[in-house]
Amino acid sequence: MAKLRKKPFFNKRRRSLIAELNLNYIDYKDIDLLSKFVTGTGQIKARSLTGLDAKDQRKVAMAIKRARFMALMPYAKERIRVLSRPTVTNEQAGEKSSSVEKTEK
What is the pTM of this model? Predict the structure, then answer.
Protein backbone atom coordinates (compact mmCIF):
# COMPACT_ATOMS: atom_id res chain seq x y z
CA MET A 1 0.00 0.00 0.00
CA ALA A 2 1.14 3.47 -0.75
CA LYS A 3 1.64 5.80 2.16
CA LEU A 4 -0.46 8.88 2.24
CA ARG A 5 1.58 12.02 2.24
CA LYS A 6 0.39 14.81 4.39
CA LYS A 7 0.73 18.35 3.24
CA PRO A 8 3.40 20.19 5.15
CA PHE A 9 1.77 22.31 7.80
CA PHE A 10 3.41 25.55 8.70
CA ASN A 11 2.25 27.74 11.50
CA LYS A 12 1.92 31.23 10.19
CA ARG A 13 3.55 33.36 12.79
CA ARG A 14 1.43 36.27 13.87
CA ARG A 15 3.16 39.49 13.02
CA SER A 16 3.48 42.02 15.74
CA LEU A 17 1.86 45.41 15.56
CA ILE A 18 5.25 47.09 15.33
CA ALA A 19 6.29 44.91 12.39
CA GLU A 20 3.01 45.62 10.60
CA LEU A 21 3.48 49.38 10.99
CA ASN A 22 7.20 49.19 10.04
CA LEU A 23 8.27 51.18 13.07
CA ASN A 24 11.98 51.44 13.77
CA TYR A 25 11.62 53.82 16.69
CA ILE A 26 8.86 53.66 19.26
CA ASP A 27 8.12 57.17 20.43
CA TYR A 28 7.26 57.61 24.09
CA LYS A 29 4.88 60.45 23.14
CA ASP A 30 2.67 58.12 21.07
CA ILE A 31 0.28 57.23 23.87
CA ASP A 32 -2.29 55.62 21.57
CA LEU A 33 0.24 53.02 20.42
CA LEU A 34 1.70 52.44 23.87
CA SER A 35 -1.71 51.98 25.48
CA LYS A 36 -2.21 48.85 23.35
CA PHE A 37 0.68 47.23 25.24
CA VAL A 38 -0.65 48.08 28.72
CA THR A 39 -3.37 46.23 30.66
CA GLY A 40 -6.38 47.88 32.23
CA THR A 41 -4.58 48.06 35.57
CA GLY A 42 -1.53 49.74 34.07
CA GLN A 43 0.82 46.77 33.81
CA ILE A 44 2.97 46.18 30.74
CA LYS A 45 1.65 43.17 28.84
CA ALA A 46 3.86 40.11 28.42
CA ARG A 47 5.45 39.10 25.12
CA SER A 48 3.18 36.09 24.89
CA LEU A 49 0.15 38.38 24.86
CA THR A 50 1.50 41.05 22.53
CA GLY A 51 3.33 38.81 20.07
CA LEU A 52 6.46 40.96 20.10
CA ASP A 53 9.97 39.64 19.82
CA ALA A 54 12.44 40.33 22.63
CA LYS A 55 14.02 43.35 20.96
CA ASP A 56 10.72 45.09 20.29
CA GLN A 57 9.41 44.21 23.77
CA ARG A 58 12.40 46.00 25.33
CA LYS A 59 11.76 49.04 23.13
CA VAL A 60 8.09 49.13 24.10
CA ALA A 61 8.89 48.71 27.80
CA MET A 62 11.41 51.55 27.75
CA ALA A 63 8.99 53.82 25.88
CA ILE A 64 6.22 53.08 28.40
CA LYS A 65 8.57 53.75 31.31
CA ARG A 66 9.66 57.06 29.76
CA ALA A 67 6.04 58.07 29.18
CA ARG A 68 5.23 57.27 32.80
CA PHE A 69 8.21 59.28 34.02
CA MET A 70 7.15 62.25 31.89
CA ALA A 71 3.59 61.92 33.32
CA LEU A 72 2.07 61.11 29.93
CA MET A 73 0.81 57.74 31.18
CA PRO A 74 -0.27 56.71 34.68
CA TYR A 75 1.75 54.19 36.66
CA ALA A 76 -1.46 52.53 37.83
CA LYS A 77 -5.13 53.10 37.24
CA GLU A 78 -7.34 54.40 40.01
CA ARG A 79 -9.05 51.75 42.06
CA ILE A 80 -12.35 52.06 43.84
CA ARG A 81 -11.93 51.46 47.54
CA VAL A 82 -14.70 50.35 49.82
CA LEU A 83 -14.13 51.94 53.20
CA SER A 84 -17.05 50.35 55.02
CA ARG A 85 -19.73 47.84 54.23
CA PRO A 86 -23.20 49.21 53.63
CA THR A 87 -25.46 48.83 56.64
CA VAL A 88 -29.01 47.54 56.45
CA THR A 89 -31.57 49.47 58.46
CA ASN A 90 -34.56 47.88 60.14
CA GLU A 91 -36.94 49.35 57.56
CA GLN A 92 -34.99 47.83 54.68
CA ALA A 93 -34.81 44.48 56.48
CA GLY A 94 -38.59 44.56 57.06
CA GLU A 95 -39.23 45.23 53.38
CA LYS A 96 -37.15 42.25 52.38
CA SER A 97 -38.97 39.91 54.74
CA SER A 98 -42.39 41.13 53.61
CA SER A 99 -41.56 40.66 49.94
CA VAL A 100 -40.77 37.00 50.51
CA GLU A 101 -43.93 35.09 51.28
CA LYS A 102 -44.00 31.58 52.59
CA THR A 103 -46.76 29.28 51.46
CA GLU A 104 -48.12 26.78 53.94
CA LYS A 105 -50.18 23.73 53.09
Answer: 0.62
